[in-house]
Amino acid sequence: MLVFFGKCVENLQKSIKYLFSGQSRVEHILNQAALISYDSLGISLVISFVSAAVIAIQVSKQFLMSGAEAYVGGSLAIVMIREIAPGFVALAIGARAGTAISAEIANMQVTSQVDAIKTLKVDPVGYYFTPRLLAAAITVPMAVMIAELVGILGGLIVSHATIGLHPHRYINSVWLWLNARDIYISLFKAFVFGVLIALVCATQGYETKGGAKDVGNSTTKAAVRSTVYMLFADFIINLIFYL
To answer: Does the global pTM surpass 0.70?
Structure first.
């Protein structure tokens, strides 16, 4: 894991250098943005809505029994924005788009397309990694913002349906509990998770050697490693901002 982490850092440095060299093309970044976040938006919103609905079912009746039903919206919004939305959306994007990144680059590696790029005196790490890193860094926070909104609305619908909580009391609780700092930290988490997904999965694909079987193994490793790195990053970010 430490050796692989070192390779990730090295590839990140090369990607940043390639970005500031001005060789990145906007159309490549836009294509990757669509593949990474737009195509994963549907499943991300479904996960966010269902997660919020389940949490609302669990806490609404308990809050009602203690006379604190007015705080359902605020507590659910805090949970969604601080942890559930950025974490679950990143995991969904990693499972769908991250594995695709790994498989694509691994296939290029085993079919010698990477070697062909090298013969043209183009840095393959910068050429393949930079558009994906930039697209993920920009679009994953956007997907998380939409998922947070959907999750909060999902909690509103379920709490109204289960305990008859008036939407005005729910929204008022959200505004009272939520602050801009939570949103900023949530977007920062999403940014870090997006970079990690693209970087770890692309590095895993780039390190692939062998044939078709190795491409499949590399894809599996990419999913596992990106999840592990995101969990560690989540722990460190919470330790820094919420301890």
So the answer is: yes
Distance CA 95, CA 242 (A): 28
210: left (phi over 0), alpha (psi -120 to 50) or beta: left
Q: Sign of torsion, CA 95 101 105 108?
A: positive
Residue 239: its pLDDT value, please?
A: 93
- Distance, C-alpha 9 to centroid of its chain: 19
The stretches in the chain having pLDDT less than 50 are none
> Tokens 């109204």 map to which residue?
160
Question: Nearest to residue 85, comparing CAs of 96, 95, 93, 97?
Answer: 93
Give CA–CA dist 143/37, Å, rounded: 7
CB 108 within 8 A of CB 215: no
Query: C-alpha 14: how far from its chain's center?
Result: 22
